[in-house]
Amino acid sequence: MRKIAFVCPLENGLHARPAAELQQRVAQFRSRVTLHNLRNKRQVDAGSVLALIGADVLHHDACELHIDGEDEQDAWQMLSAFITCDLAECDGPLAPVTRHQEQPLPVFLAATTSICLRGNGVSPGLASGVAVPLGAVDLPQFAEQEAPEDAGLQQQRLAHTLAVTRTQLKEESRQAQGEAASVLGAHITLLQDAMLEKALLSPPAARNALAALAYTIDGLCQPLRESQSQYLQQRALDLQDLGLRLAANLTERPLFTLPDLQQDSIIISAGLITPGQFLALRGPHLKGIVMGEGGETSHTVILARSFGIPLLCMPNASVPAGAPLLMDARYDVLIVAPDACAEQWRDLEEDKIARIARRLEPLTRTAGVSRDGERVKLLANIALADEAENAFAAGAEGIGLFRTEMLFCERSTPPDEEEQYQAYRHVLTLAQGKKVVIRTLDIGGDKPCDYLNLPQEENPFLGWRAVRLYPAFEAIFSSQVRALLRASAAGPLDIMVPMVATLEEIKWLHARFHQVAEQLHTEGVVVGEWRLGIMAEVPSALYLLERAAKWIDFASIGSNDLVQYFLACDRGNPHVRHLYNYCDPTFLMLLNEMAARSNVELCLCGEMGGDPVVMPLLLGAGLRQISMSAGRIAGAKKQLASLEMDDCRKTLQRALACENAAEVTALLHEASAASVLPVFDPALLLLDRDVTSKAEAIKLLTDNLEVEQRVRAGVDVETAIWQREAVFSTALGFAVAIPHCKSAAVLNSSVSLMRLKTPLSWGEGVDVSLVIMLTVSEQEKGDHMKIFSRLARKLMHDDFRQQLLQGRDAGDLTARLERELTL
């Protein structure tokens, strides 16, 4: 017998992937190979992946491989080389590089001692609630509902299920890429493991096949649950996932129903939540969603954004059912069992969000007008007819994009004409004559419908989709056209067709719509006012828009697809996603030329429309109709009121001269940071506040700057303040602190003041009763450090301090500060 002694070099321990690598090498030899974990004294068969995982080998565990058999010398040589040279490379790092590493936690929140899980926030927002796992199934309990079976039938059914599931996984693996393919490969290895097959096909006596499956999976998971490694504990999820897949195939029916939410809840799902599941879950108690996959452009994410539900994509999120949670998809974080620090941060954030909403609420009742009096229509994107009412309540001046795919997806047959008609009519009735743009079915490619049986395509984004499908699915297309034209009797309707790339398609659409309109007229059906338009989302639209006025009335730029088609980058591909940037100067050239060439009315309805940073560019290009998510409309109206069209045109021309997107972004930040608000303002004084910590004081002050729209984000200025505090304490003495910073996040240089009810510690044994904060824009041409030095001198005088400490009127105190500090 030969031995190989080694210390486990794997940071994550010997879990499925490295175990599979070892098992594959052991399988090449006839000798028996046994792994001995010297820490816990476990001895397992190295020819089984599940047995190797069950050995609970952790990082730095001392181990031995014992090799016994006729080819032990050859096995010893190969396995020695593998252990020495290759084993350490069989696993990735503990913290893979994802977007959350580029998104640090706010300074105040970073002080929490609670568990913080990081993901990818794809629908922004803040939420609290209890964890509700989606799809949690108690297999033993489920098995009690199944009829009893004899051992022979159990074995037969389990063997068939195992074969079917292996075939499924192999097919899915062929279609998958990247990490998904690796995970599926590991699952295939587990399903092919001799230990699993033996345990599954020869279990102890059980009531039926499902009970036998439940017993087997639980037994295989037990060693992982007992592991000291949290990582290996969570790998039990792989086996549980396989168990649920096997059980679904065994029973040939769904294993669970959606939960009935009775309290504020955050749904936790290991996989994708479908749009239908989202809509079924939606209600007053659905506060947030954590799901294992979904991307930024899936229909579920679009719905979550539309309804204001925060959503985090987080693979393998392991959270106990019922655990209290705090999630913030803006900062990509899920906090389990939030402590007092996290809860205080949440309360402060909710107060800030409510104050911003109150400030913007009057704008929901006004029209979009620039500072120099130019009218700009700000419209809403919706995906369901039910969203229209909330969109108009949020200040939308119309519907710029009604995506109709939700009517068609997640069902076995397409909606009939009447169902569609009622949905379209509902939106038009709510609009009361306002602009409504309904997009015809944008299906195919990345958005399939099962009942269409569309073929697999190598490149679905450039394939058989949208308008290209219509001639082949004439009945579905005609049904939608009839429903749309009938609905136009309820109000003026703009009908928009996606993915149009040629003049021939435009001519065909024009003829087809007018044929249907004439047919309806012949039938005696009333058709109201309607117009035909196209989505400008492929580069060829640049040339179509100056030639198509004879056949269409309008176009809407779909910036999401137009950017990725123009720059030839799939925004869902992590390797090229960095190229997807609508601030790229060449794309801005395309946009500008498209607006200049168009002989039809032009709108923009992609994500670019909701980005406040780029609004000056859109206005500078001449766009006067912009569609966005409803929640952004009030803020966009506020921003619009501060802009002048001539300045926007100049900003666009400067952007077109930039060399890259980074230069454009810097230019836009510089342009938006031009100071238009006074440095001193009564709204910047927070008097007689009950504050318990330095962190709370700084957050309150920086949040107030965000509410007053003097900074891009209060959290960025908060960070800048703390960076200076880390160098030296800004406690001046005389019970006064002067925190300060100069930052690109500051739009308008400001002097803020907080007077405390009770002195608090500012560090280094200094208590303060007065906090005066200076925040200076990097673009500020004046020298506001003169204010800092003058303030420091003034604070040495007791009468000045007493006036600040005892004054009751914010206006008088502001005037005094300005008079004393700017002389």
Automatic annotation (TrEMBL):
Co-factor requirement: Mg(2+)
Keyword hit for Magnesium: yes
Chief place where the protein resides: cytoplasm
Superkingdom of the organism of origin: Bacteria
Catalytic activity field: D-fructose(out) + N(pros)-phospho-L-histidyl-[protein] = D-fructose 1-phosphate(in) + L-histidyl-[protein]; L-histidyl-[protein] + phosphoenolpyruvate = N(pros)-phospho-L-histidyl-[protein] + pyruvate
Keyword Transferase listed: yes
Domain HPr: 1-90
Molecular-function GO term, any one: kinase activity
Key words of the record: Cytoplasm, Kinase, Magnesium, Metal-binding, Phosphoprotein, Phosphotransferase system, Pyruvate, Sugar transport, Transferase, Transport
GO BP terms: phosphoenolpyruvate-dependent sugar phosphotransferase system
Annotated ranges, domain PTS EIIA type-2: 678-820
CDD domains: PTS-HPr_like (cd00367), PTS_IIA_fru (cd00211)
Compartments reported by the entry: Cytoplasm
Cellular component terms (Gene Ontology): cytoplasm
Family listed: Belongs to the PEP-utilizing enzyme family.
UniProt protein name: Phosphoenolpyruvate--protein phosphotransferase
